[in-house]
Amino acid sequence: MAIAAEDVWLEKVIPITEGFAVEEVVLDSDLRVIGSDVTIQITSKDDRLTVRLPFGSHTRTFLQEVGRCRPEAVGSEGVKQNGKKLMVGQNRSHDSTDRSAPRQTKLKPEVTTEMVRSSSVMVSNKASILSEPKFGLRDTIVKSQLVQMEDSYTHIQSFRFFVGTYNVNGQSPRESLQPWLRCDAEPPDIYCVGFQELDLSKEAFFFNDTPKEEEWFKAVTDSLHPDAKYAKVKLVRLVGIMLLLYVRADLALNISEVEIETVGTGIMGRMGNKGGVAIRFKFHNTSVCVVNSHLAAHMEEYERRNQDFKDICSRMQFCQLDPNLPPLTISKHDVILWLGDLNYRLEELDVAKVKQLVDEKAFVELCQYDQLKRQMNANAAFEGFTEGEISFQPTYKYDAGCDDWDTSEKCRVPAWCDRILWKGQNVAQLSYRSHMALKISDHKPVSSVFDIGVKVVNEELYRKAFEEIVRSLDKLENANIPSVTLSQREFHFEDVKYMQLQVEKFTIRNGPVPCQFEFISKPDEETYCKEWLIANPSKGFLLSDAEITIELEVFVNKSTATHLNSGEEKLEDILVLHLNRGKDYFLSVTGNYLPSCFGSPIHTLCYMREPIQDMSAESIRKLTLMPVEMSDDDVGAEKPMDIPKELWMMVDHLYRNASQQEDLFQQPGLRSEFEQIRDCLDKGMHDTLLGSNHSVAEALLLFLESLPEPVICYRLYSSCLESASNYPLSSQIISNLPGCHRNVFEYLMAFLRELLKNSGKNHLDVNILASTFGGLLLRPPPGHPTPDITEKRKAQQFIRQFLLREDNLR
């Protein structure tokens, strides 16, 4: 798994002095599979520390930086790998690092543990023009032109990929996976195995921690085809969504540039109970991205599923080996394999009719009512993807332990929730089937076997192409200074709204000299643009006479809304586009922001009796800049409302319409409906909020998250954690809140207690609500370290006390 900021903390500083060493080791306790995460032993004069780091670019960069920082610096031993010392800056691949010579093939007699790790520079980097972490303009030009000439030195060779998906409904692997994973006589070359709902516990949901990862990893490893030896390349997990990648051990040297990413699309756009995980890699000279996703549930939520798919595609970005190049998205791969519980259902048919058609094996007719097929035909989701013919019965929903359809009170309509799709050339599907023999879940696993044509390099032809490029580059080396033409230099974003993306595009057209471009920061500024703006891509490379489209994206969120509401910040910025060895170009970006209740302080909203967009900019500014603790007399205005009217509208809507709503505060709403709700609150257009209960619930959470001062003020954060198990003391802390904040806290607690009275219908419990609201009402102050699991539990416990009591706190 990737390491996030909240997973680490500073406990001890080990100085990089004489005697300092870093060595990659293989512990006796490590699973004997190739490509497992990197175990590092750090030693100094007084300390020895063993840590495990995830395989990928971040770990590689860390080790290189450590190597550079050694006292010996240039010419030092650097970082050891499996006991072998590596020179600082040494290429960790098996490629030649000679600046002028192309790659030399080195055959190994046996597969070793470092093969997957060390084949990090293969494909378009075969030339090894510069040693690894150097990525100059010359190197970039060579690599780019090698990619353009790829057909001249590669041929297509087929390899067999097994792709499997299984929603295990929180169960442990109590039965063999062999009927699923080794159902063919011929062993596959690569396994891509995905799971959903690996763990349904609250611990997994809120803290992303589960023992079932190891259980299912072992079950898969033990069930792989017996006629081949496999190496684990990578494992990635987000809550209950897990993806495993294995390769035949004799092919391990051909895997390179392995990266992983995760995207949560659950409530508030980040909870990991829904979303996707992905592994991208190069196999020979073909880039492959494997995505495992679990999309939104319920029959009527097909639009939300479409949105989840688009969010995963837009937010999933992989670091490239060359830091001068922008991140890779899913679509930038030669082959994409997408698997998972996509949750699309069969619509317009009742349970009896669906079962009848299944009994008749009328799958072609049944597919006409499949939501995924309909959405793909309408280009609403999975555009450009292909799915094979479905010749197996729906994989959901069964009674656990047997093959009977759902006999519960809900009696779900059977559906093909579990799917496998692909995109790319030279892909032939050999099989697409379900596996009825596995019975522990309410889903059946699905598998597909593909023959995928992979681009394999001919070394002799590659050398010729490389030498041709270098000769032509030598002639161009001292050519003219690079220059470009921009299609537009001034951009205005009209009526920007909270959390509503606006995009403007322009093109950069290059002249005759290849160039690298990058948006650079202005003097005395740390970043190249304001926080609400981004250029995509922000840097890149252009060959002679090439053209690229740049997207300027304006997006106002909780971190920028408050200052824009108050007028302290405006939508104004100057971008500096810099050409390496060339001139700078200046772009003007302006816009107007429509103020919103999202990002406004509680006490400010309590003084606003009219919708915020009906007020003058000066009135908004004065109220937004007003101190939280200011008394009513100091304001000199009419008495404030007890709570913000916007908060009341959302809570009242949920109280009247959603008290019994299943999965409230756990299932996200639609972005389009959030925008309607936001406009309604900001403009006072309607007495009733538009949108589903889930959309209103998510809007409430986003509102609380956007508050610049949380409901429980920052200054009381530590006191609240200390009193998390002392209700009288906790009550005293709440009583000391500013009046508006105290009113909001009591109002929300009363509402949540009402929801708990309907837990039999809405399936909420005190722990779900305490965890969901604990991180919103009680937030660490700016500059405080990211809360660890212990802090998160204390925040949950603090809120939990008030959900279990109905005392009057005053």
From TrEMBL:
GO terms for cellular component: cytosol; early endosome membrane; phagocytic vesicle membrane. InterPro entries: Endo/exonu/phosph_ase_sf, Ig-like_fold, INPP5B_PH_dom, IP5, IPPc, OCRL-1_2_ASH, OCRL1/INPP5B_INPP5c, Rho_GTPase_activation_prot. One of its GO terms (biological process) is phosphatidylinositol dephosphorylation. It comes from the Eukaryota. Residues 92-108 have a biased composition (Basic and acidic residues). Residues 75-108 are annotated as: Disordered. GO terms for molecular function: inositol-1,4,5-trisphosphate 5-phosphatase activity; phosphatidylinositol-4,5-bisphosphate 5-phosphatase activity. Keywords: Cytoplasmic vesicle, Endosome, Hydrolase, Lipid metabolism, Membrane. Residues 628-810 form the Rho-GAP domain. It is found in: Cytoplasmic vesicle, Phagosome membrane; Early endosome membrane. It is an enzyme of class 3 (hydrolase). Its main location: membrane. Its EC number is 3.1.3.36. Pfam families: Exo_endo_phos2, INPP5B_PH, OCRL-like_ASH, RhoGAP. SMART domains: IPPc, RhoGAP. Belongs to the inositol 1,4,5-trisphosphate 5-phosphatase type II family. This is phosphoinositide 5-phosphatase. It comes from Otus sunia. The lineage of its organism: Eukaryota, Metazoa, Chordata, Craniata, Vertebrata.
